[in-house]
Amino acid sequence: MKKIIMAGLMVTVFMIASSFAEEISYTANIKSIFDQKCIQCHGADAPEYKEFKKDKKKYIGLNKGPRMDSYTYLLYFVGWPDTGALMRRLDDGNNTKNGKPGNMYVNLGDTEAERQGNLEIFKKWVGNWSLNRWSVAKKEEIEGMKVTY
User: Fold this and answer.
1) Domain boundaries, given as residue ranges, for the chain
2) pLDDT 10s digits, 111-137
């Protein structure tokens, strides 16, 4: 009987540990990918969103996008005010009507396998991978976002 109880406890502990191990967070998972793949154009020397929008052509010419180098800056492009922007840019095309990937998908990795792996991590982090903008996003879509720090 003791062996059965111990085996049950071990399985329970393993299941709990596995569920914690699967949680994706900004600090444990996203930041390292971002620092490797995105920081060059979206780092501390990149303009904040409103500045970027004022002279988009200039910044694109300088190979700079809007600043996203912290959890707070990145959330701007996930939840609000530019809801879904990160998802639209990183999507592989499986969630679009025309099947075209977002313009930043190619930067997620050097190979398709690496891009798909990094995309999956971003998807798990976001939780509800919706390409919708704030004006059309449903309450459930916003509530389904995780974006754990």
Assistant:
1) 24-143
2) 999 999 999 999 999 999 999 999 999
